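I'd like us to work through together how a protein chain folds, taking it slowly. To get us started, please write out a protein record for me. Go ahead whenever you are ready, and we will take it from there:
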Amino acid sequence: MSRGGQQREGEWASRCSHGPLGCLRVSHRQRSPCLCLRGSLMGNQLDRITHLNYSELPTGDPSGLEKDELRVGVAYFFSDEEEEVDDRTPSDCGFKEPEDGEEEDRGPFTVSEVEYSAFCCQECIFSKLHEHEDLNVYTVKSLLTMCKPGDLLELVGTAQAPHWVIYEQEDRVIHLHKGEIRKDSLLELSNGRHGRIVNNRYRYRPLPADLVMQNAVGHVGLSTEDICWTNSESFAAWCRFGKREFKAGGEVHSAEQQYFLKVHLSGSGVHTLVFRSLEDMIRERRRVDACGILKELSLVNGGKE
């Protein structure tokens, strides 16, 4: 790290002493954020460690209605590592593995997941709520019978961030994995995960299917130094919607444009987190999917579950 980078990191550490709880300090190689009682906004990803302005934290609900709920600002030490699709069996991923001679149950299956909604400029831009949409998942073999070229697919499993891909044809998909844009077999890629079509998860207007495929195919073979997405979801969503906000550093930060992520936790209400870019919001939501958020929220909320 350069001398200037060390100085900035030292200044960051001195700024993150907010009372007795302080911050959950993490390495830049980890995805866990530090959650500050006074509420912090997302830093500039290009600078990697940025000083925060707490006065910019909004205090109003984007809908204009105030609710009695916890609101937390989130700050990161960034990592450019893409999550790994590891070798797991269906049982490892939370699904029953068929016994010898038993026909595979192709679903649909229900999974226990954290639910979300997200807003920008008072408009809903993302929704994952069971009362509004079908959140069932299917085996990959069953899922392949439903897919069309250009579809956005999500592979899910317990205690891991979902892996997003663009469906091409037959069982071939295009995705970001381990710092490379690749074309792979969905059957081989799934490694026990089940999946679903998530074309409508984001509320942006999608591109025509041929342009979606053009975006995806045109980037196959690119590796880390040429890639401007930090996870599989951002790349796949960019292919489908074409919005530069899905790219790392593709969004100009402004006090007027904030992103509000509402985390719907069973039994503990709705918690609102505030971000300065779409990419930062995606990072945190994927971290929640991978490791949960209850511990961090309980710390910020004085230890109450």
Notes: Confidence is low (pLDDT under 50) at residues 6-82, 87-95, 98-103, 294-305. The chain has two domains: 3-80+259-300, 115-246. Residues 278-291 form the longest helix (14 residues). The helical segments are 3-15, 140-144, 186-190, 209-217, 232-241, 278-291, 294-300.
